[in-house]
Amino acid sequence: MVDRRGLDISLALITVGDRYLMQLRDFDPEIADPGMWGFFAGHGKVNERPDEAMRRELWEELRWEPSRIWFLGTTVFDALRLHVFHSAIGKEVSRLTLREGQDMSVFSADQIRHNRLQSPRLKRHYPPTPAARHLLGLFHGISKSPDRYLPEKDRTSQAR
Questions:
Q1: Residue 59, H or E segment
Q2: What's the pTM value of the predicted model, to 2 decimals?
Q3: What are the angstrom distances between the C-alpha of 77 and each of 19, 38, 86, 134, 146?
Q4: Pfam families attached here (predicted)?
């Protein structure tokens, strides 16, 4: 397994109404948290800002370019520096193309907290990653109205 300590990870809390879009990670034992549900994320490349990494990862993993992303904050979890973003998607969620992972689905905060996450494709339950549960606890309320958590000058600069 790759040593991930000290990595910068950009991670998206993508909401569909009051639910969260999540990815069932591959079952490869060489990756972190195989076979668990997590939020869409990836590490930054050299000289890449966290917001650039987030947009790149969303394109690579979902073929999606959100019109708007909000920066919610940075936290450290399991020796990783997580740059957490929020974006919302509506009906167009059905047009996303999953390019990494085993499945994707939307779940309520309650389902995530209580490990009730079934894969529609595989018809089995899989748990959320420890990071997903941790981040849900930190950012669940914030992701419902992210503008009020940004300084006034950043409310428009976060748009693109």
A1: helix 50-62
A2: 0.85
A3: 23, 14, 18, 8, 21
A4: NUDIX
Kindly indicate the confidence band of residue 140, based on its pLDDT and cuts at 50, 70 and 90: confident
CATH 3.90.79.10 fits 8-157, yes or no: yes
Contact by Cβ (8 Å): 4, 82: no
Pairwise CA distance, residues 28 & 50, whole Å: 26
Percent of the chain with pLDDT over 70: 84
User: What are the angstrom distances between the C-alpha of 92 and each of 17, 36, 88?
Assistant: 12, 25, 10
Residue 34's contacts (CB-CB under 8 Å, 6 or more residues apart) are: 25, 26, 27, 28
Residue 21 CA, chain-centre distance (Å), reads: 8
In 17-116, beta strands by DSSP E: 19-24, 37-38, 40-43, 70-77, 80-88, 103-107
Alpha-carbon distance of 104 to 107, in angstroms, equals 10
